[in-house]
Amino acid sequence: TKPIQIAIDGPAAAGKSTIAKIVAEQLGYIYIDTGAMYRAITMKALSERINMASNEEAGKLLAKTEIDLQPSEDGQLVFLDKKNVTEAIRSQHVTKAVSEMATHKLVRKHMVELQKQLAKDRGVVMDGRDIGTHVLTDAALKVFMSASVEERARRRFEENNKRGILTSLEELQVEIAERDKMDSERQVSPLRQAEDAVFLDTTTLTIDQAAQKILKLAEERM
Ligand code: C5P
User: Fold this and answer.
1) Residue 116 and residue 210: Cα distance in Å, rounded?
2) Ranges for the Cytidylate kinase domain (predicted)?
């Protein structure tokens, strides 16, 4: 069997990263979480207090920023200017600001180039919002994963709890719905299901069931 590229897209907190990691591990592929890149540049923009609404300022910031992803035991490590920010980029502060940063054309162009490089000529599972539509357009398998907004908020609530982040379920529902709206309505590469993607509703599936479905689809395409 030859290594393939697997693209997983979908709205916030649909289970993409958890499931993508399992699939990658099972296949011996690398896992790339593209949201982490948008989060990293957002973290820097917040600390440098740049105007988040400006495409040009975002471009200037990118030119003096180094974002590096490294595969690790449990997924992926994220480095921003050589500093390990794997945990820090998950803060609510970054989460609330990231979708605005991700609207900028210069930011997206830069990230998409990096992502294509990382995936070149290897077995890879990549998750994000525009992977099937703009990054790995020739991926052998594209999955569009979703779940009800209530279920997604509940899952994020539990995940945050485990990491010691306290946010109410209501607040998370609002944040997730707002991020989905912004990601779906932006001008440049909005969140869309690719025409050749398989739709997977994970609302009533366990993590393992969802991973098994994707593994089966992957095997059919190898
Ligand atoms: O996947 P995650 O929730 O970490 O993504 C954070 C944000 O980054 C998304 O809400 C979206 O605004 C942006 N993003 C994107 N394109 C991607 C991955 C993430 O615009 N491929």
Assistant:
1) 26
2) 6-219
